[in-house]
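User: If only I could read backbone structure tokens as easily as an amino acid sequence. Those tokens are not coordinates but codes from a learned vocabulary of shapes. Could you go through the record with me and say what the backbone is doing? Here is the record:
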Amino acid sequence: MTSATLIVAKDTDISDLRAADLRPWGMGKYTGRQTTPTHDEISQLAYSLYESRGRQDGHDLEDWLRAEQQVVHHYE
């Protein structure tokens, strides 16, 4: 799995950043005051898992459940 780097301007208030800007799989524990993950967060991670496997079909449910577990754990 790869990680990304988020670059923000020096005067940016990090409280304005959305949870999607700080991916749980690479950018720390900031959740933007959300208490549960969004469908989009889970979807993006599930797609990332699919791509990391070489876009191999037939594992969509496995990818979704794994992504959901990882993202929910991030919010705990």
Summary: Residues 60-75 form the longest helix (16 residues). The helical segments are 39-52, 60-75. The CA atoms of residues 18 and 70 lie 18 Å apart.
